[in-house]
Specification:
By secondary structure, the protein is an alpha/beta fold. The chain has one domain: Pyruvate-ferredoxin oxidoreductase, PFOR, domain III (Pyruvate-ferredoxin Oxidoreductase, domain 3). A 6-stranded mixed sheet has the order 2-3-1-4-5-6, with helices on one face. A hairpin with a 7-residue loop joins strand 2 and strand 3. Helix 1 packs across helix 5, helix 4 packs across helix 6 and helix 5 runs antiparallel to helix 6. The relative contact order is 0.18. The mean pLDDT is 93.
Length: 180
């Protein structure tokens, strides 16, 4: 595996840091080397928030993102600070409701109803997990089984079933988007 750089971006309170932690753990389960970083504005909810994962085999030369292969944008506030880092051909997944103007130039863009799907299965709070599953399903970053193990280790028991259902929805959306 070559170096892979992933960013989860949006607004505070959307579970972006949790999603990156889950991906980080899943990559570790698969034996890959990974580093995770994050940043957010001082407001607890609503301000710009991001969390990055850099992964590869062996030692990483630099643990911070400099050229993104993947972007999951859950809110418009996460787009502007992230789009200058996108590689040509980067995979971008944008929430259809909260990201009306996603990056479109030189990227492989998928608009998905992440928020609406999360509400449909019972909680807006799992849009991040649906997006994580969709991104990994489309991009092949890591296996669904490793993500399920990571989610199980990072999720309180009373939310585990819902988070695993959200992961399933994300992977199921892969086929829907490819067919469209």
């Amino acid at each position: 595996m070559e170096l892979t750089e992933v960013r989860f971006a949006g607004s505070g309170g959307q579970g972006l840091i949790l999603s990156a932690r889950m991906l980080f753990r899943a990559l570790s389960i698969e034996g890959k080397t990974a580093a995770r970083s994050q940043g957010y504005e001082p407001t607890s909810r609503g301000g710009f928030c991001f969390s990055d994962v850099v992964a590869g085999q062996g030692d990483l030369d630099y643990p911070l993102s400099t050229s993104l292969d993947y972007l999951l944008a859950l809110d418009q506030v996460g787009v502007a600070p992230s789009q200058h880092l996108l590689k040509k051909g980067a995979l971008v997944i944008a929430d259809g409701r909260l990201t009306p103007e996603p990056p479109t130039k030189n990227v492989d863009l998928y608009r998905a109803p992440l928020t609406d799907q999360a509400i449909a299965i019972g909680s807006i709070r799992v849009a991040n997990i649906i997006g994580l599953g969709l991104m990994c399903g489309l991009g092949g970053i890591c296996a669904k089984e490793a993500l399920a193990k990571a989610i199980a280790s990072e999720t309180p028991k009373n939310f585990l079933e819902l988070n695993l259902e959200a992961l399933d929805v994300g992977f199921a959306t892969v086929d829907e988007l490819k067919a469209a």
